[in-house]
Specification:
Chains A, B: GO terms for molecular function: transaminase activity. Chains A, B: Belongs to the DegT/DnrJ/EryC1 family. Chains A, B: It comes from Laspinema palackyanum D2a. Chains A, B: This is LegC family aminotransferase. The structure is a homodimer of 391-residue chains. Chain A is an alpha+beta fold and 391 residues long. Chain A has two domains: 133 residues, Alpha-Beta Complex (Aspartate Aminotransferase, domain 1), CATH 3.90.1150; 245 residues, 3-Layer(aba) Sandwich (Aspartate Aminotransferase, domain 2), CATH 3.40.640.10. In chain A, the strands form five sheets. A four-stranded mixed beta sheet of chain A has the order 1-11-10-7. In chain A, strands 12-14-16-15 form a four-stranded antiparallel beta sheet. A three-stranded parallel beta sheet of chain A has the order 3-2-6, covered by helices on one side. In chain A, helix 6 runs parallel beside helix 7. The longest helix of chain A is centred in the last third of the chain and has 20 residues. Chains A and B meet through helix 2, helix 4, helix 5, helix 9 and strand 15 of A and helix 2, helix 4, helix 5, helix 9 and strand 15 of B. The structure holds pyridoxal-5'-phosphate (2 copies). One pyridoxal-5'-phosphate (PLP) binds next to helix 4 and helix 5 of chain B. One pyridoxal-5'-phosphate binds next to helix 4 and helix 5 of chain B.
Chain lengths: 391, 391
C-alpha cells in the first residue's frame, strides 16, 4: 500500500472508528416515532391509496421546503417523470441534464419519450455549470417561434434539469438567468438535496417544478418514495391527478380523463415519512458535524480534498465526497479497493451518462469538468449516526 | 322506493347486518403477523431496495401460485407495463384488451407507447370471449411474415391480455387456443385474481407472463404493490433487471445497460405482504362463505342474479357481483343510490374503456356483451370479515 492509501485509510479510521465489521455508505435511522406512526397506520387499516398520512406528509414537506405544494409519489424517478411531463416535455424533445448524475435523471427523460442531452458540471458545485451551458446554448441552439431547437438534430429543447449533486446546490441564480434567457423551463432534480438551501431557499423550489427522493439511501426514507414540489396550484393539481389514474371524484362512477399512472405513495410509506421528517433537523445537524470531521482531517492531506458546500449555500451533506487533486481512475480504484477491503463502504461517482450504452448516441456538450470529476470523486460513509463515531 | 330496491336492500342487510355506519366495498384485515413482520423490517433498517422480505415474498408468491418465478413490484400497473414490454410490445403496436376492465389495463398499454384495442366479454366469466375474439381476428387481422397486423390500421397486433374480472377466471383453454392460432403472446392481467384457479391452475400462470396487484382494495395488500409471474427464467431475470435500473452488480461501479425503471417493491411493503400472504387461505375461505351467503339470498330474487364462478374454475370472489337481468343504467343507479345511501358501499362496473376520452379513438370490436354488462353489474361489499356478519 502506498502512502496515499495509508493516509486515506487512516483518516477514515480516525473519523469513523473501526468497522465492526462494515460501515455502510448511508444507513437510515429509526429512533423517532417510526414505530408509532407505522403501527397507527396498520391499525387504521388505511395502508394504501387513501389515508391521513399522505396528506400529512405532503403538508409537512411543503412547510419544510417552503414550496406551496408537495405531491407525495412512489419514488424520485416517478416524480421526475411526471414533473418533466408537466413542464411540457413531449416525445422527441431533448432535455438538458448533467452528464454527471445518477441514471434515474436520464431514465425519467426517456420515460417521457424524450432524449437526454448531456451538459458539463463545474468543480465548485459538482452540478451544471451555468456559464458553460450559456456558451453551449449559444453555439448549438436556435430560437424560433416554436421555441428553442437543437440546430444539429432539429429537435426541440424542452427543459433543463439542474441536479444538486450529493446535496450541494447548483448555482441557481446563474442557472435561472440562462434558463430565462433561452425561455427554458427548469425542473430541479433535488432527489439528493432534501434539507439543502441556496441563498436560504430550499433546493427544488426554484424551478417550475422540483423533485425529491426518499429511497433507503437518502437523508430520510419512506422505504421507497418521492415528491413533486411546485408553487403552481394548477401544476400541483395536475401532478396529483396524473399520478392517481386521473379519476374524477364520484361516489361510484369510474370516469378517468387522461392516460395516467399509479404513482401514488402508499399511506404506509407516508406514515414512515412523517416520522422521518420530524427528525430531519437532527439528522442534518449530525451530518454536518460528520462533514466537519471529514473536512478537518482531510485538510492536511496531500493529494485529496474534501468537497465543501458551495458559497451562499447550505448543503445537507447527503454523501460526503473526496476529490483527488490529480484525477486518476487508477488511483481512485486503488483507494476504493483499500477502503472497501477494510470495511468502509466507499464509491466512485457515477459513470458519466453518455458512456452508458443506451445513452451513448445522445447529444452531449463538451464535458471536460465532468470527465475530470468522474476520475476524482469518492463518496465516503455519511450516515448521521457516524458523527463522533471515531472519538 | 320500488319493490326491487327494497328487496335488494333487504338482502344486503340480511347478509351484512346493519351498517355501523358504513360497510366498505373491500377492506384489508391485519390480524396475523403484520405488525411483527413490519416491526422486524423497521428494526433491521432494511426498509428499501434490499432486504430479505422482498426475496421471501417472491418465493412465497411463486410457491403459492405455482409460477416458477415471481418478481415483486411497486404495483399492478407497473407490473403490467413491464410484462407487456417483455412480451415484445413496441411503440405503435396494438394490444388486445377487454373493454370491460379497470383503466390501468389500458394505461399499461399506453405506457409502452402502444394502442389498446378493445375486445368483448362473455356473460359467464365477465372476461374476454375467446370465440368472439376468434371471429373478430378472422375479420380484421392479417397474418404475414412480420406477424399479425390490423388490416384497417396497418399496425402490428402484439399481444392479448385476458383479465380475470373480479376474480372470475377467463376461459383460458379457449383463449390460449385462439392466441396460439394467431401466434399472439398472452399476458394475463391477474390483478384481481390472486387465489383464483382455472382447472386447478392459478390464474396468471397460463400466459407468457401474468401480473398481480396488492393494492389496498385487493385480496391481500402491501399498501401498494404488484408482481410479475412467469415460468421463463430469462423473462424473470429481465423483469428484475428492468425494474431495478438495469444495474450490473459490482462492488462500486455504476454500470447500467438499458433504459430502465425504479419499479421495485420496497422491503417494508414486502414485509406486510409476507404476513398477508400467510393468511390468504383463510381470507379465501371466508370470502367464499360470504359469496355463498349472497348467492343464497339472491337466488330467490326477481330481476337480480348473483354472479357465480365459471365452470371448471375456482374464483377468489374478490368482489361479489350482482347482475340485473334487464340491463338498465337507470335501475342500476337507483339500486346504487339506495345501497350507498343506506351505508353499504356498492359500485357499478367500470365505464367501458372505449368510452373514456383518451381511449375514444382506439380501435374496438363490436361490444354487445360488454355494453350489457356495463348496464347490469353491481359490486357489493366483499371483505372476508363480512362472512357471517348478518347472522
Ligand atoms: C440524482 C437522482 N435522481 C433521481 C433519483 C431517483 O430517485 P428514486 O431512487 O427514489 O427513484 C435519485 C436517487 O436514487 C438520484 O440520486
Ligand atoms: C384489472 C386491473 N388491472 C390492473 C390494476 C392495477 O393495479 P395497481 O392498482 O396495483 O396498480 C388493477 C387494480 O387496481 C386492476 O383491477
Amino acid at each position: 500500500m502506498d502512502k496515499i492509501e495509508q493516509n486515506f485509510l487512516h483518516a477514515l479510521q480516525t473519523v469513523l472508528g473501526q468497522p465492526n465489521p462494515f460501515v455502510p455508505l448511508h444507513e437510515p435511522e429509526f429512533m423517532g416515532n417510526e414505530w408509532e406512526r407505522v403501527k397507527d397506520c396498520l391499525d387504521s387499516t388505511f395502508v394504501s391509496s387513501i389515508g391521513k398520512y399522505v396528506d400529512h406528509f405532503e403538508v409537512m414537506l411543503a412547510e419544510y421546503t417552503g414550496a406551496k405544494y408537495a405531491v407525495a409519489l412512489v419514488n424520485g424517478t416517478a416524480a421526475l417523470h411526471i414533473a418533466l411531463l408537466l413542464a411540457g416535455v413531449k416525445p422527441g424533445d431533448e432535455v438538458l441534464i448533467p452528464a454527471l448524475s445518477f441514471v434515474a435523471t436520464a431514465n425519467a427523460v426517456s420515460h417521457c419519450g424524450a432524449i437526454p442531452h448531456f451538459i458539463d458540471s463545474e468543480f465548485e458545485t459538482l452540478g451544471i455549470d451555468p456559464f458553460a451551458l450559456n456558451d453551449y446554448l449559444n453555439d448549438f441552439s436556435l430560437s424560433s417561434s416554436e421555441g428553442l431547437t437543437n440546430r444539429f438534430t432539429g429537435r426541440r429543447i424542452a427543459a433543463v434539469v439542474p441536479m444538486h449533486t450529493y446535496g450541494h446546490p447548483v448555482d441557481m441564480t446563474s442557472l435561472l438567468d440562462v434558463a430565462n434567457r433561452y425561455h427554458l423551463p427548469v425542473v430541479e432534480d433535488a432527489a439528493e438535496s432534501l434539507g439543502s438551501r441556496y441563498q436560504g431557499q430550499h433546493t427544488g423550489t426554484f424551478g417550475r417544478l422540483g423533485t425529491l427522493s426518499f429511497n433507503g439511501n437518502k437523508v430520510i426514507t419512506t422505504g421507497g418514495g418521492g415528491a413533486i414540489l411546485t408553487n403552481d396550484a394548477e401544476l400541483a393539481q395536475q401532478a396529483k391527478h396524473l399520478t392517481t389514474t386521473a379519476k374524477h371524484p364520484h361516489r361510484w362512477e369510474f370516469f378517468h380523463d387522461a392516460v395516467a399512472w399509479n404513482y401514488r405513495l402508499p399511506n404506509l410509506n407516508a406514515a414512515l415519512g412523517c416520522a422521518q421528517l420530524e427528525q430531519l433537523p437532527d439528522f442534518l445537524h449530525r451530518k454536518r458535524l460528520l462533514a466537519q470531521q471529514y473536512q478537518e482531517i482531510y485538510r492536511e492531506m496531500e493529494g485529496i480534498d474534501f468537497v465543501v458546500e458551495p458559497a451562499n449555500s447550505q448543503s445537507n451533506y447527503w454523501l460526503n465526497t473526496l476529490e483527488l487533486r490529480q484525477p486518476s481512475f487508477e488511483m481512485r480504484d486503488r483507494l476504493l479497493t483499500a477502503a472497501n477491503d477494510a470495511g468502509y463502504q466507499c464509491r466512485p461517482t457515477w459513470k458519466l451518462l453518455h458512456k452508458l450504452p443506451m445513452y451513448a448516441d445522445c447529444p452531449h456538450a463538451p464535458l471536460p469538468v465532468a470527465e475530470q470529476l468522474e476520475a476524482s470523486l469518492i463518496n465516503v460513509p455519511s450516515s448521521a449516526k457516524l458523527a463522533g463515531a471515531g472519538i
